[in-house]
Every structure is written in structure tokens, then in C-alpha cells.
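Input (structure):
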């Protein structure tokens, strides 16, 4: 397999950052679920959690920037005790806030008010639902997950999420169960909308199709089945040069739970931080948005997952 960096050589230059439009914040690896595809390797036993000091540093960074969108993720970010303060402060700064939600977190102890809090702050929700059938969801995310997810979506619909007239965006995320590329996003979205409405009365805004990243927990899943090399070859064979201009790392800055900064959430999990001229990892405390513009983006063979087929990003497929 040709290394990913070599595939970029016909472009005449390596990937570079543009103006940052999205600040993605990983609030930690603590989660109430353990999913086999999770590149964060999140779960109930993880203790990595963003501190209030780091949250305040992020807010100071935002105050000095014009970055319009804040994308909050985890783990289950809502389980971090500083989640609510971060959301409220970002709203006061007039930033658009997105929350990457696993849906079952609404039923975690003490989170009964969470859905209403998100509604009041008009937070855009991006919710994991890797299939519209119970068997496939529970196989990937744990027994009982599908039932709780459906209950959560119905509750969000009652609050106005997913209803066109409210403007409250409710997006779902599909991830393949195994070592395959996702199907065409537009086609699968219609299937989801039909099945979820017919079976459960659920409506939503958009479906995002993501390609599984061959790192961390999913890499171990593939290796245990002897499929790792085959999956990498599949991704490399499906490489599309047309995705390069739309890669999320071009316009996104990722902040880890400890304040280190990265080109993307995947580089964060591979411990590939941005570095200063002396080679020291950069932290949000010493950074401005302008400092990262035009900087080289760190790439590796895992980047094939974002450039295969229609492409993949935190906002779904890159190409129609």
C-alpha cells in the first residue's frame, strides 16, 4: 500500500490549514457506553476529564478569535461537570454550539434536565445511531442501547428537535458495523427517515455517514479477525483526490481534554499534537487561531479513512 503522504505529492504541496471555522473540544474519555468502533476508547472506567482550568483557557482562546462554531465531543461530554458552563459561556459569546451525543446519556443519573438545557441554548445535536434496527445497534453499542436511543429521540422530538419549524437541528450518525465503507449518504438518509418515522414516529434533520477509523479499539477489532490489512487496502483503493479540499482538518482545530491541540480528533487519539518551532507540543493556553493558519497538517495512513469513496468527516460524507 502506498503511504498516504505520497498520495498527496501530485498536489505539489502537503496539506495546510486554512482559517479555523470549527473549534472541536474533547471533554474527556469518560462515557456511559463502550462501543467497539470508538476511536477515543471511551468507557465508564476512563478517568481522563477536562478540568475547569482548561475550560477557562478555551473560553479565553475563543474570546480572542472569531471562530463561529464550537463542536463538543468526548466520551460522553455531558458527563463532564463543566459541560454546562462551557455550553452557556459559548452561547454568551454568540458561537454556534454542537454536541456529539450518544443519546443514552439522557437517562444517566442526574441528567433528567439535560435535554431541556440543550433546547434552551439551541444546541445542535449530533447523535449516534449506527442503524435503524435494534439488533445491529445493540451489537455495536451494547444490549438495550437501541431502546434507550429511540426513547431519547422521541423525547427530543417532543421538545422540538428535528422539527423543521423550530430550527432545532437533530442529526444522526451512521457508522458501518464492520470493515466496509458506508453506503451513499443521501440514499441511506431516506431509508433512515422512512424506517424511524414508520416504526417509531421519529423525525430528524440529517444523517451523517462516517467511515470507521482503523485506530485504537476498532483497529484491535480488525486485527482480532485478521481484517486490518484488508481494511487498509480497501480504504487506500477507494482514495478520492476530490475529497482533499473538503477535509475537516483544513478548517478545524481539535483540543484535547488536557488542553493540547491537534489537527483533528483522530490525530489526538494517535498522540500527534501540533508543535512549536522547538518541537514542543502546543497547548490552548499559548495559542491563537491565527497561529495555526497555513501550517502543515500532520498526516498518516489513517487519513485514508477520511478520503475513501465519498469521504468522511465529523459532518458526514464530503462528496455527493
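Output (sequence):
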Amino acid at each position: 500500500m502506498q503511504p498516504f503522504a505520497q498520495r498527496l505529492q501530485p498536489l505539489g504541496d502537503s496539506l495546510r490549514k486554512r482559517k479555523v471555522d470549527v473549534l472541536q473540544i474533547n471533554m474527556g474519555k469518560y462515557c456511559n457506553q463502550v462501543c467497539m468502533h470508538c476511536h477515543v476508547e471511551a468507557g465508564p472506567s476512563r478517568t481522563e476529564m477536562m478540568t475547569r482550568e482548561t475550560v477557562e483557557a478555551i473560553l479565553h482562546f475563543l474570546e480572542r478569535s472569531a471562530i463561529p462554531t464550537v463542536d463538543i465531543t468526548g466520551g460522553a461530554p455531558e458527563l463532564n461537570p463543566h459541560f454546562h458552563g462551557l455550553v452557556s459561556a459559548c452561547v454568551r459569546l454568540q458561537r454556534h454550539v454542537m454536541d456529539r451525543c450518544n443519546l443514552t446519556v439522557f437517562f444517566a443519573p442526574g441528567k433528567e434536565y439535560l435535554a431541556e438545557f440543550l433546547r434552551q441554548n439551541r444546541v445542535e445535536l449530533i447523535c449516534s445511531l449506527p442503524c435503524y434496527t435494534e439488533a445491529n445497534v445493540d451489537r455495536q453499542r451494547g444490549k438495550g442501547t437501541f431502546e434507550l436511543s429511540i426513547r431519547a429521540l422521541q423525547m427530543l422530538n417532543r421538545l422540538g428537535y428535528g422539527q423543521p419549524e423550530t430550527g432545532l437541528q437533530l442529526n444522526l450518525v451512521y457508522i458501518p458495523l464492520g470493515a466496509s465503507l458506508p453506503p451513499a449518504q443521501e440514499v441511506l438518509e431516506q431509508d433512515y427517515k422512512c424506517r424511524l418515522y414508520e416504526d417509531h414516529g421519529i423525525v430528524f434533520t440529517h444523517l451523517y455517514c462516517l467511515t470507521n477509523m482503523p485506530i485504537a479499539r476498532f483497529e484491535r477489532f480488525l486485527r482480532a479477525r485478521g481484517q486490518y490489512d484488508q481494511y487498509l487496502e480497501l480504504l487506500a483503493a477507494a482514495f478520492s483526490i476530490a475529497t482533499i479540499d473538503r477535509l475537516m482538518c483544513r478548517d478545524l482545530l481539535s483540543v484535547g481534554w488536557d488542553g493540547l491541540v491537534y489537527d483533528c480528533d483522530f490525530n489526538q487519539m494517535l498522540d500527534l499534537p501540533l508543535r512549536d518551532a522547538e518541537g514542543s507540543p502546543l497547548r490552548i493556553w499559548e495559542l491563537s487561531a491565527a497561529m495555526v493558519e497555513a501550517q502543515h497538517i500532520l498526516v498518516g495512513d489513517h487519513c485514508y479513512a477520511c478520503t475513501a469513496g465519498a469521504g468522511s468527516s465529523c459532518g458526514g460524507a464530503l462528496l455527493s
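Notes: The chain has a mean pLDDT of 94. The chain has one domain: 4-307.
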